[in-house]
Amino acid sequence: MKGKQIAIIIMSMILAVLSIVAIYIFRQQDKATVVEDANDMDTPSSYLNIEYQGEYYKFNTNLELVLFMGIDRKHEVELTSESGEGGQSDSLILLVLDKSKKTTTLVTISREAMVNVKMYDRKGDYIQDYQAQIALQYSYGDSGKKSAQLTKDLVSEVIHDIPIRSYLSLDIAGIPGIVDAIGGVPITMNNDYTEVDPAFFRGAQLTLDGEQAMRFVQHRNTEESGSNIVRMERQSEFIRALFAALGNGKGKNMVGTLLEVAEPYLITDMSVSSIEKLADYDMEEEIRQVPGTIIAGEHDEFYIDEAGLQELLIKTFYFKKDE
């Protein structure tokens, strides 16, 4: 009799565990899972094959990612040993390069996205993760390659460990000189931005000079919740217009001059030839944004919609295995 009671207890425990597992699986079914096999198990390339809502997807290996960071310091790049004082990434834009189609798709990430930022002390030793705006990750470096690398790694983590090949980190104080060096940037205003400049009305076709370009990418009404979303829109439009201005071989012909002008404000791990090749790509019209919800406060907080993010990643980086 006692043995039967013990058996009943054990069976009850097993059923309880199975119930918990079943609930967990049910809750996770809307998330993409890594499909492991002998080729990608326990390797950094496990992002190559995923399962989402019963469908199997393969990463498009024709794609390469470059992260553009706009840093707002208002002075030339200076290396600093003070962790937490290395500036902030005011804009984060992924350039998704399709090597087969020779096209670039822009994907923007809000500087206010709440993520697990990695904190380091003044000696550069890791302390802990803490939830904060993604823009702050840059500050825990040296204002140079370490800051850029930390931000690149965190953005890769946000997009489910899809690797980012390279980065371009530009202090936006360098924008006027760059724009003036290429003779201005032609752009059409897709929305009304007269709050920034009376000339920026919807439909206006302008060639921005350096100072206008600076106002266009930098202005933000900090008293208005969600104003960063509007600024992100302008920043993406400017990047697209800048690439168009550098197209048709113009960028390659001017790369030396541009790098000379940008050098005091630019940090990158790209070679000159790699930067030149960016001018060979046509910019897609659609600008994609990592989706989420804004919570207003003294400092707005942007919470990423994980389900929406997964759909964006599949749309941008994957194709069905049976296609």
Quick overview of this protein structure:
Helices cover 33% and strands 27% of the residues. It has 8 helices and 16 strands.
Find the count of extended strands (DSSP E, 2+ residues). 16
Largest sheet: 6 strands, mixed
Shape field:
globular
Strand order within the widest beta sheet: 12-9-4-5-6-13
Our estimate of the beta-strand percent is: 25-35%
Mean pLDDT: 81
Structural class: alpha+beta
Count of discrete alpha- or pi-helical segments spanning 4 or more residues: 8
Termini Cα gap:
60 Å
Secondary-structure element order, as H and E?
Answer: HEEEEEEEEHEHEEHHHEHEEEHE
Layout of SSEs?
Layout: H1 2-28, E1 33-34, E2 49-52, E3 55-59, E4 63-71, E5 89-98, E6 103-109, E7 114-120, E8 126-133, H2 145-158, E9 166-171, H3 175-181, E10 185-188, E11 205-208, H4 210-218, H5 227-245, H6 250-262, E12 266-268, H7 272-277, E13 282-289, E14 292-295, E15 301-304, H8 306-317, E16 318-320
Parallel strand pairs: 4-9, 6-13
Antiparallel strand pairs: 1-2, 2-3, 3-16, 4-5, 5-6, 7-8, 9-12, 10-11, 14-15
Helix pairs in contact: 3-4, 3-6, 4-5
